Amino acid sequence: MATAPTFESQLTGANRDAYMALTTLFKTYNLQSLAPKIFDYIKNGYSADTIAILLQDTSEYKQRFAGNTARLAKGLPVLSAAQYLSVESSYRQIMKDAGLPVGFYDSPADFTQWIGTDVSPTEVKGRVDLAVASTSQANPWVKQQLAALYGVDDAHLTSYFLDQNRSLPILQKQQQAAAFGAEAARRGLLSDATRMEDYVTSGLSQSQASQGFQTVAEELPNLMALADRFGVTFGQQDEEQAVFGTSAVGTAKRKGLASQERALFSSGSGAGAGGLNAGYRQTT
């Protein structure tokens, strides 16, 4: 049985050279499926430059460079094929350098939305750095807090930080909030996303969070015991407000307990050497 002739074998001279050049080019775009159309255009007498333009209007080309459709809709400049491939290559190299597995965020479809919304490789690197810091480099307390505060388990941490529907600043804030929550949790204290994010917004540093939650953990049991003795309410959030200086209410309640304890000491019926004044210096 005779073998069907290839397209290039049916062409000669300049036509064959043009066909080979165009199919080679579009193969780099992973668009070798356009070979029959290239052949037809050449047979109909179109020049190589004209064919290259006509191919850009095919459904295959538009699908391959789908990010350009989104860019056009947003009023962003359309990327040339070379520019588009260069951005994809940068994304892919960032993933590879971070040690992410082959097949994970490395296909054209994975990059379509980023390109379509003009997300730079620099921002993608920021997302990847967060993902790496929160997985392979993170201590278990941070992972625990990401799960507790945002419902992100270990298996989906990287995907979470690469989620194109979440902005980088929000992800950075959530990662820092989880790190603050970890400082609380490792000392047996409670945390919630709103409170931890408020601390991030206030400019609290990691070192300040660590020292502050240590103070809260050390003093809270005695403070709560005193509050119970004097018939007032005082909890972890009140102590945090006093220690971190985020609310006058917590500070006032803390000072009130200190005053009542001093009054007891002065009358000879204090709480003992291990009382409130033994370890607290910030508000007294």
Account of the 3D structure:
This protein is an all-alpha fold and 284 residues long. Among the domains are: 8-64; 206-278, no CATH class. It contains 15 helices and no strands. The chain has helices at 13-28, 35-43, 48-55, 59-64, 66-73, 81-97, 108-116, 121-133, 140-150, 157-162, 168-185, 193-201, 206-230, 236-244, 248-266. Helix 9 crosses helix 11 (168-185) and helix 14 (236-244) crosses helix 15. The protein is rod-shaped.
Q: How far from one another are the termini?
A: 99 Å
Care to count the β-strands? 0
Report low-confidence residues grouped into runs of 5 or more: 269-284
**What is the count of DSSP helices, taking H or I runs of 4+ residues?**
15
| Sheet/helix structural class | mainly alpha
Helix content: 55-70%
* Largest sheet properties: none
Give the amount of beta strand, in percent.
Answer: under 5%
H and E string = HHHHHHHHHHHHHHH
Compute the gyration radius: what is it?
A: 32 Å
Average of the residue pLDDT scores: 87
What is the 3D shape?
A: rod-shaped
